[in-house]
Amino acid sequence: MSKKTPQAIRGTQDIFGSDAEAFAFVVETFERVRRLYRFRRVEMPVFEKTEVFARSLGETTDVVSKEMYSFDDRGGESLTLRPEFTAGIARAFLTNGWQQYAPLKVATHGPLFRYERPQKGRYRQFHQIDAEVIGAGEPQADVELLAMADQLLKELGIADVTLHLNTLGDVESRDAWRAALIDYFRAVKDQLSKDSQDRLEKNPLRILDSKDPRDKPFLADALKIDAFLSDEARAFFAAVTSGLDAAGVKWVRAESLVRGLDYYRHTAFEFIPDEGSASAAALGSQSTVLGGGRYDGLMESLGGAATPAVGWAAGIERLAMLVGAREEAKADAVIVVENDERLDDAISLLGKLRSCGFSAEMIASGSPRKRFDKAKKIPAHALVSFVVTDEGSPMRIMGDGGECHTAVESFILTGR
Ligand code: ATP
Ligand code: MG
Asked: What's the CA angle centered on 150, arms 144 and 153, to 5 degrees?
């Protein structure tokens, strides 16, 4: 057996201290905001049958073709650690007959796994918050979902991130656009990047969001979806944008925004840091913080009845980077036992404070003479020291005491 200590898996993170506080702040804020919008909480399995993702996302997508953690279990079944939430939630909707709750608004958060090249803001185990509206075909669902995302970012104090919005049209619009893009890119095929050449026939929309310098010269002149939109798709998009305006959500049109997955229809969007902003500086090239869209075709690809739906997901780590490290909260009180005869009194006060809702911790180990200095280093509103002094005073309180002063004083007076 090797004596070397094991290393963490590449692309995983051990999040601690003020970074963990920022992470928790994102999750807590999300939980609060999703309740305001009356999204119900769901808990999803961390793994699913591989086909759940392969059929939902499409075989040609980056996620399915290169990024999934798939393995055969001991029964020989191919399973995959979830690379995203939507496919699993769609599967659960069908498995459990959640049609009865439609339109169903659900929210969840947790870890996801993608085999990517780890770098700043990009990990192999990362975490998302996720919100979905299933069984709602009206543009109002898109508006509500986007208003929730916008409010969440505001409540996180992230002001320099803007909604980039596009429509991919309905199936006819999207297919016509796709065919036109294949023609357009085929003519310049040998000048495109290798990735884009591979995508050309199977997933030409993806070429539009290529960041490869070989592709860039051809992107600006590529045909835009607007030329192919059916009247219905155009009206849908107009209803989404007017709803956003009414809800006070700022947005910009992003004609090349396509999103990576096959299942998107109509609305597609990303929240991206504004150019030159603090958030752009913090995130570097990993710039999308929240993304999603409408996936009306997904349930059918899983063998269910046609069910319109729209959703988004945001990387918790990326949001936490924008929030910045957050201080761990000060304790209301730190209790130090400088005289071991007073230990039980100290334990009693500690319990009383906590059950009154005050945060408190106790220092009662190590050399008694060193305990006071140890306790003083802990950020706290009050430092309560248990001593027996010459004057017979059982206890000293230092600091501003904060709100818990009264509780401590009553303890001194009554012992309760
Ligand atoms: P990207 O273009 O950055 O690869 P994506 O389109 O693959 O993003 P989605 O699948 O839409 O991302 O996931 C939504 C959000 O999840 C992203 O906007 C990002 O905040 C976060 N995210 C995605 N992949 C990772 C990762 N490997 N590490 C950390 N966060 C991630
Ligand atoms: Mg990706």
From this structure: 145
Q: What rounded mean pLDDT belongs to the chain?
A: 91
Calculate how far, in angstroms, residue 315's C-alpha sits from the geometric centre of ligand 1: 6
Domain range enclosing 360: 331-414
What average pLDDT score do residues 201-205 get?
Answer: 87
Q: Is 126 in the pocket of ligand 1 (CB under 6 A)?
A: yes
Q: From the CA atom positions of the chain, what is the Rg in Å?
A: 27
**Is 41 inside any structural domain?**
yes
Query: Residue 206 has what pLDDT?
Result: 86
Ligand 1 in reach of 317 Cβ (< 6 A): yes
Q: Is the pLDDT of residue 335 over 80?
A: yes
Q: Is 114 in the pocket of ligand 1 (CB under 6 A)?
A: yes
Q: Is the CB of 128 under 6 A from ligand 1?
A: yes
Supply the pTM of this predicted model.
Answer: 0.91
49 CB under 6 A from ligand 1? no
Q: End of a domain among 323, 347, 372?
A: 323
In this structure, the residue with its CA closest to atom 21 of ligand 1 is 315
Identify whether 181 is part of a domain: no
If asked whether residues 26 and 149 sit together in one domain, one would say yes
Among all bound ligands, the one having the nearest atom to the CA of 122 is 1
